[in-house]
Design brief:
The protein is mostly beta strands. The protein is built from 2 helices and 34 strands. The strands form 9 sheets. Strands 1, 2, 6, 28, 29 and 30 form a 6-stranded mixed sheet that branches. A hairpin with a 4-residue loop joins strand 29 and strand 30. The longest helix has 41 residues. The chain is globular and about 100 Å long.
Length: 476
């Protein structure tokens, strides 16, 4: 009997990655050099948010996607944090709302004006204080409009109700730093990976641990739910220090269903899962390549498809939501790759090659839309609902009529000698100090000239007024 390789037909076996042209990239961005294992980037259909280098506190920039190209060195920033920003996430239902967390132990919610920032933003819509140490992760609930999760270095996860601006639950089952969080489709389960080498599945409202795994042959770093398949996928390190992925049954974490070694590099592997196409993307921190697999419910469970290669190493990756993709080009996924050495952000489109120009329904099923299925109070009362689905057939033209309302709280500012230190971020280097000095000198010179011109005009008007007063009634 002759041996034949197992071959499985797949509509995604020829998916390829395409880097955007230079004019559609974002250049001149001072991407943060922080070594925290996170993406430092968040994308939606309107804006691109990137954590940046800054002195005197933490900051990030928000750029409208329509403003691609080279960024002005004095582009306004969101700079209200007093410590380095460690994570940012866009609200999936309000595209102008972004959450950030920082080393200053706070979580903040910001509202970005339409068209982007025109000046430095220092006042957040909400400032949330509850952690005793720095906060490393924030996650929005996938189906609820006003629920935010934050994980801190105090080993706790706080659940925030943004309708009241207060924490409603503290999950304190972890014994070390929480590395990642992931929700299932309806948000009824939360999976976490922790530095104590344990994988947990938690019921978030009660904080009860439903499943827990501590597998010696696979040290978990990142975890992601695989949609409605009742499976978990983790990336981590084997006992021989090779990078590895493992597939788990969410109802039985005693042993992984399958493990697969990737390579012997040291950078952390970040998993990205597309529940519509059942494709898994793996990108390593410091790597230049992105591997992708197809996940199935039958053996071999994970089918390797292809690999996108690039010479430039990535510090992090942002992912565009489904409704922001180019359906006409058969784009099924889009990354925004951070290249720190060049100060560059490159969009990378994953495309299914098709000859027909018509809408491809088989690769674009109904997907999670931009309308919340629940309010915060409904979810807290114990209700779970699947996401409200939408079709991408006619493109995304339906605007969201919802308005984000935050509770009114007192705003804090740090004012010294009439200068708001949070808004006026000091220069980091001597060259920046010199540029700022000469810019201020030019501004002073312009103001002096403008003042002189106005003084001359005031004198002229005074003379005309005196002439009018001196004119006798007979001369009129």
């Amino acid at each position: 009997m002759s041996w034949r390789p197992t071959y499985r037909s797949s509509k995604f076996r020829n998916v390829y990655g395409k880097v955007a042209n230079r004019e559609h990239c974002f250049d001149g961005i001072p991407i943060t050099k922080n070594v925290h294992d996170n993406h430092f980037c968040a994308v939606n259909s309107k804006f691109l948010g990137v954590v940046t280098e800054s002195a005197g506190g933490g900051s990030f920039i928000v750029i409208p996607l329509s403003q691609a190209g080279r960024l002005d060195s004095h582009y306004p920033k969101v700079c209200g944090h007093q410590g380095n920003v460690l994570d940012i996430k866009w609200n999936p239902f309000f595209e102008n709302i972004i959450a950030s967390c920082s080393e200053d132990t706070s979580v903040r919610v910001w509202e970005i004006p339409e068209g982007g920032l025109r000046r430095n933003m220092t006042e957040a819509v909400l400032e949330l204080y509850g952690h005793s140490r720095r906060v490393g992760l924030v996650e929005w609930h996938p189906t609820t409009s006003g629920i935010l999760f934050s994980a801190g270095y105090d080993y706790k996860i706080l659940i925030w109700n943004l309708e009241t601006g207060e924490p409603v639950k503290m999950i304190d089952c972890h014994t070390d730093v929480i590395l990642s969080m992931s929700f299932n489709t309806d948000g009824s389960l939360l999976a976490t990976s922790c530095k104590d080498k344990k994988l947990r599945v938690i019921e978030p409202r009660s904080g009860r641990v439903l499943q827990q795994a501590s597998y010696k042959n696979h040290r978990v770093n990142r975890v992601v739910f695989l949609g409605n398949m009742k499976r978990l996928l983790t990336t981590g390190v084997s006992r021989w220090n090779t990078r590895q992925i493992a597939l788990w049954d969410q109802e039985d974490l005693s042993m992984p269903i399958v493990e697969e070694d990737i390579d012997g590099l040291s950078g952390m592997l970040f998993p990205f899962y597309d529940a519509d196409t059942h494709m898994l993307y793996l990108a390593g921190k410091g790597d230049g390549n992105i591997r992708y697999f197809e996940i199935t419910t039958e053996k071999p469970y994970m089918q390797y498809l292809m690999e996108f290669r690039s010479p430039a190493p990535q510090k992090g990756l942002g992912v565009m939501p489904k409704h922001g993709l180019d359906v006409a080009a058969c784009e099924v996924f889009r990354f925004y790759k951070l290249v720190t050495l060049k100060g560059l952000i490159e969009p990378i489109s994953m495309i299914v090659p098709r000859r027909s120009d018509t809408y491809q329904e088989d690769i674009y099923p109904m997907t999670a839309g931009t309308e919340p299925a629940l309010s915060a109070s409904e979810w807290l009362s114990g209700i779970d609902r699947d996401p409200v689905l939408m079709s991408l057939k006619d493109g995304y033209h339906r605007p969201n009529q919802l308005v984000f309302k935050a509770p009114v709280k007192e705003k804090k500012s740090t004012v010294v000698n009439g200068i708001d230190l949070l808004e006026n971020v000091p220069p980091r280097t001597e060259n920046e100090l010199l540029r700022m000095f000469f810019r201020q000198q030019d501004e002073l010179r312009r103001l002096k000239e403008e003042l002189t011109t106005k003084d001359v005009r005031i004198r002229q008007l005074e003379l005309e007024l005196n002439n009018l007063k001196n004119v006798s009634p007979k001369d009129v």
